[in-house]
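Hi Prof. W.,

I finally got the GNAT family N-acetyltransferase prediction working! I wasn't sure whether to trim anything, so I left the full sequence exactly as given:
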Amino acid sequence: MQILEGKNIRLRALEPTDLKLLYKWENDSTIWEVSHTTKPFSIFILKQYLESSYLDIFETKQVRLVIELIDSNTPIGLIDLFEFDVFHQRAGVGILINNAENKNKGFASEALEILCNYAFNTLLVHQLYCNITSANEISLRLFTKQGFEIVGTKKDWIRSKDGWLDEHNLQKLNPANS
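And this is what came out:
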């Protein structure tokens, strides 16, 4: 089994052919509140991003991988390591499963498990973290199921169209270092 491959999904590098997919997913305003996006991305900017995506995480401090179904090579989402800090050996994690038909099938959990193993065993990070609003119960369940713990809460941290939301800080330490 490959390091970035599980039973049902694989994590793969971005390809130039992913431009239309990135454009569609990044400009889906229904997820902007979760991704803290406030404006659309142009094809030009996304093309530049793809052209530089070959750079190493140690250089760019981030890596975005496509979540792809093994049996059909169908892209179903994205998973990111961001704010990679070499000195403190930590990185943030973000995940997107785009279509409703691919949700609640364990793909996000499998992708997160693969990414954690990659981060801990290949990149040798000490800790991974994420920030999730209190209203995002699905993401809270996903991350806590994978061993992330809520280590703090910022009150009224995120402004939404429905009012202010608390944001939970979650963290997972590398089990090899604990």
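Residues 9-128 form a domain with the Aminopeptidase fold (CATH 3.40.630.30). Does that look reasonable to you?

Thanks,
D.
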